[in-house]
Amino acid sequence: xxxxKEFFKNVIENVIPLHKFFNIKLLDINKGFAKIMIPFKxxxxxxxxxxxxxxxxxxxxxxxxxxxxxMTTLVSLEDRLSTIDIRIDYLRPGKxxxxxxxxxxxxxxxxxxxxxxxxxxxxxxxxxxEGKGVYNVKRKADLK
Length: 144
Known about the structure:
Helix content is 24%, strand content 40%. It has 144 residues and is an alpha+beta fold. β1 (25-30) and β2 form a beta hairpin.
């Protein structure tokens, strides 16, 4: 499946219902790499006293970007991808601002893809969270 950036943009922004609900935007995608953003809105706050983003929003976005990076390795529209495990280390509270996450493939095998992800806001050197995702991939050839 040779897919261009417009194909991935449509899938990430419009086809996946959760992404559409949160208004997730694709900022960049290349083989083994993805960068997405969720625009800030008050409903994303988890701690109203500190005006900090909810940790579940951060982990959701990190899982999404890891999956998007893994998606760049699929060869058919019939291939399947699912999360096996995800680990998130929260490093500092997220502010009431847009959240950006990047994911890149650390290892891509026949059935397992491992990604590394980072989350940040206006300054990439001040990470909010970092993590690792493990995804199961079933390619069309394996589905028979």
